[in-house]
Amino acid sequence: MNITREQVDALNAVVTVAITKDDYKPQVDKALKDYRKNANIPGFRKGAVPMSLVEKQYGKAVLLEEVNKVLQSSLNDYLSSEKLDILGNPLPKQTEDFNWDTEDYSFEFELGLAPEFDVDLGAKNKVVKYDIVADDAMLDEQVERIQKQYGKLISKEKSEAGDDIKGVFSNEEKGINSEVVITPEVFRLKTTAKKFVGKKVGDVVTVNTKGLFDDDHKLMEYLKVEHDAAHGLEVDVNFTIEEVNTTENAELNQELFDKLFGEGNVTSVEQLKEKIKEDAEQQFAQQADQKFLNDVTESLIDNTKFDLPAEFLKKWIQTVGENPLTPEQAEEEYAKSEKGLRYQLIEGKVITKNNLQVNFEDLKAYTTIAIKKQMAQFGQMDPSDEDVENIVARVLSNQDEVKKLSEQMMSEKMLGLFKESVKYKSKEITYQDFVKEMSGK
Predict the structure, then answer these.
(1) What is the distance, to the nearest Å, from the Cα of residue 68 to the centroid of all Cα atoms in its chain?
(2) DSSP string of 155-219?
(3) What is the dihedral of CA 74, 78, 84, 85, to 10 degrees?
């Protein structure tokens, strides 16, 4: 056997695998003997079929199968020994007049090679790392929400602004029948909100769904319609009022503080706000980190320049699915996947260059912390080590869970690296302004 490589250019190569009779004949002979032992041909006892008849009936199929096995094995060994970093899989070059009646064969494969490039994490960029703070307005809003949540519900005859109105949105033609609790302020327009003020139990208010809320997705929540149906929905719906209630806010006293945070842990409104601020900013930090990670990713894709073997990849895309794609379909799929492929290569380079690894002990410790946090959410504040270890063992016996947790850990390692190495600008911002940044408004 002889394997040679012709370098077409920096990103493309052709590998030729030359196979001689000596490379495959022993395997073919063994396979035909096995066929002979089990062949069931009329007129012959099992195992006594003449080899010439077995070769005539099965010889070509066995030859094709065994040559293909030798070919694939030798090609894989070659790629591994040569340490070739390929994209996709080798593509066999089609030969219309290939002759299987000879004893020696030559096969050609096209290779798409990964490009050589470097990733400069310290390069100049426009990435901003946000520090989201809970401002006084948010804290006051959260305190009021807590007071309302733990307040006393009072039934009313007529609705006013700020009241909770329980009722049913309905439209028979569209199959809408959704019982919800709303406040008039939830609607996008003040004119719509006014329709619900001064109403009594049994009254019916008719509104149109077009522009009813500031986001059409809220139609899914309030009208219980599917995602696709919510977009552009323009029908009249009736809201039949069943209850009108207002809430007498709970007093900000020690009884409420103890109910929220345990006895004696919070003793004043100032401490209450400090606790709300601390909890909120922990959650905000996770959102800010995710945006930072996304923004660095986008920056690396934009600023790390390298070519890809595009024509090879398009040809490869045509062959990888259950059904072959047309060149036009492959072109479209390549356009969709090119950005993701570029980041996979960049990410791989960053991981290798900075020796980022996830070993089993790290994964076990990470899973243990996650399990304890989850148990705490359900009131199990001090679980036994044995209980935690048993749960961790069950989780890590699931390969899908291991994959997911490993990806989460690697994402955190990448985030830590980016915080240390990327030259970003820091910006303190309120959560409301952060949401605007996220939405591009």
Answers:
(1) 37
(2) E-SS--TT-EEEEEEEETTTTEEEEEEE-GGGSSSHHHHHTTTT--TT-EEEEESTTSSSSTTHH
(3) 30
In a structure prediction context, what are the per-residue pLDDT tens digits for the chain, which is 441 residues long? 899 999 999 999 999 999 999 999 999 999 988 888 877 777 777 777 888 888 888 889 999 999 999 999 999 999 999 999 999 999 998 877 788 888 899 999 999 999 999 999 999 999 999 999 999 999 999 999 999 899 999 999 999 998 999 999 999 999 999 999 999 999 999 999 999 999 999 999 999 999 999 988 899 999 999 988 998 899 999 999 999 999 999 999 999 999 998 899 999 999 999 999 999 999 999 999 999 999 999 999 999 999 999 999 999 999 988 889 999 999 999 999 999 999 999 999 999 999 999 999 999 999 999 999 888 878 787 889 999 999 999 999 999 999 999 999 999 999 999 999 999 999 999 999 998 888 765
Q: Which helix (H) or strand (E) holds 238?
A: strand 236-248
Q: CA 59, CA 300: separation in Å to the nearest integer?
A: 55
Identify any residues that bridge with 204 across adjacent strands, giving them in sequence order: 240
CA–CA distance, 421 with 398 (Å, rounded to integer): 34
Q: How many residues does the chain have?
A: 441
Beta-ladder partners of 182: 165
Question: Residue 125 in contact with residue 292, Cβ under 8 Å?
Answer: no
What is the distance of C-alpha 333 from the center of its chain?
A: 18
Q: How far apart are CA 171 and CA 208, in angstroms?
A: 11
Count the neighbouring beta carbons within 10 Å of the beta carbon of residue 200: 11
438, 130 contact by CB (below 8 A): no
Instruction: Please give the model's pTM, rounded to 2 decimal places.
Output: 0.74
